Amino acid sequence: MHVEMGAREPMGILSSRIGFSPYITLERDEWARLRDTTPLPLTEEELAKLRGINENISLAEVEAVYLPLSRLLNLYVANRQELYQATRAFLNNTSAEVPYIIGIAGSVAVGKSTTARIIQALLKRWPNHPKVDLVTTDGFLYPNRVLEARGLMSRKGFPESYDIRRLLKFVADVKSGKPEVTAPVYSHLTYDIVPGEYEVIRQPDIVILEGLNVLQTGTSDGRHGPRVFISDFFDFSIYVDADVHDIEEWYVERFQTLRRTTFRDENSYFHRYATLSDAEAEAMARQIWHEINEPNLYENIAPTKARADLVLEKGPGHTVQRVHLRKL
């Protein structure tokens, strides 16, 4: 077990200049042992439905990384539930318990969506919090017509492309225990908000909020954002990390796969890329990465890593090599 966070300084400094780190660092095998006797509830068929594009995460990876994480989160949630019961008894209050909120952040193509789906599937198996909802922040992007009017289509995914006020209200409503809270729905096929379609959240035990911007506290031009931040409502936060060069390769691989599949749909926003050759598609993917996704990563996403309660550090192949857990 280590207490340094020396990996990849450009991706966010997690140790102070005087050598102190607020994190405990565990190598993969150390972390895997913390699974203890937690059983593996997923089958290969179930895991296949949770994997993202080009993310061949195995059951062995779930056992080594995600089972210990689900055990830790279950302990944290149980502790929160006990504290709530004690506080309710003290106040003689009969109000319903509010959801436990977990935020998951990280770059485009780093695998945070798959991480979120696996965590959701595992947490549902624990008996004291069976209702676990997953919401992505994509639904809180401004519609394309608004982005086009504001000249922000090339900045999609940057802080200014999100309706932060609406996202803040959503998280605040969830955390206040409202019986029903709605979130807009985003289509990755049309690359836009789906008009009139909403996801309804009805007082789950746990809400997982996944997205690029969930740990951000400002805007890409250096201005401070609202005084209340999305992460203020989190009970626990996770950052999915990897070397920037690995993430770029994963992005290119995903683009190539989508070119051969989803982009062929005539309703796809990116249908124009379906006829590109392999070489042309790679060049286009790297251009998009270097002009949009990489700057957003360095300017807005990576600097938030140090705010996370836990960092999953991936190596090539999307396998987690180290886990960094914030000290209490």
Tell me briefly what this model is:
The protein has 328 residues and is of the alpha/beta class.
Descriptive account of the structure:
The chain is α/β, with parallel strands linked by helices and 328 residues long. The chain is 36% helix and 17% strand. The protein is built from eight helices and nine strands. Helix 3 (59-91) packs across helix 4 and helix 7 crosses helix 8 (278-301). It is globular. The two termini are 16 Å apart. Residues 2-13 have low confidence and may be disordered.
Number of helical segments?
A: 8
Query: Can you summarize the main beta sheet?
Result: 7 strands, mixed
The percent range for strand residues is 15-25%
Structural class: alpha/beta
Q: How confident is the prediction overall: mean pLDDT?
A: 91
How far is the N terminus from the C terminus? 16 Å
Order of helices and strands: EHHHEHEHHEEEEHHEE
Secondary-structure topology with pairs:
Blueprint: E1 23-27, H1 28-33, H2 44-50, H3 59-91, E2 100-106, H4 112-123, E3 132-136, H5 144-149, H6 164-175, E4 181-187, E5 192-201, E6 206-210, E7 236-241, H7 244-260, H8 278-301, E8 310-314, E9 320-326
Parallel strand pairs: 2-6, 2-7, 3-6, 7-8
Antiparallel strand pairs: 1-9, 4-5, 8-9
